[in-house]
Amino acid sequence: MTAQTDTTGPVTTVFKVSGMSCGHCEGAVSGEISQIPGVSSVTAVAKTGEVTVVSAAPLDDKAVRDAVDEVGFELAGQA
Fold first, then answer.
1. Are residues 20 and 32 in contact, defined by beta-carbon separation less than 8 angstroms?
2. What is residue 9's predicted lDDT score, i.e. its pLDDT?
3. Helix H or strand E encompassing 73
4. Residue-wise over 10-45: b if at least 16 C-beta within 10 A, else e?
5. In whole angstroms, what is the distance from residue 25 CA to residue 8 CA?
6. Alpha-carbon dihedral angle through residues 53, 29, 23, 75, given to the nearest 10 degrees
7. What digits encode the pLDDT tens for the residues 9-41?
8. Alpha-carbon dihedral 50, 60, 32, 54, rounded to 10 degrees
9. I need a labelling partner for 39 at 20 to 30 A (CA). Which of 5, 19, 26, 28 fits?
């Protein structure tokens, strides 16, 4: 479901999210994921469906899935 890099220090994880089509979608997904404890940065790109998350530790996939579901999108798979 995720691709992770650099497990010492900040962790960068790239998620695929389906259904994003505009800047508003990017903002909604980014805003919701940024509320997960430990997340320091979120960048969503509607064109590719990729959401890059930087966090203090690896994230729980369920927490990310729940955040994405909350704003009406679907965590689609590994980026």
1. no
2. 81
3. none
4. ebebbbbbeebeeeebbebbbebbeebeebeebebe
5. 31
6. 80
7. 899 999 999 999 999 999 999 999 999 999 999
8. -60
9. 19
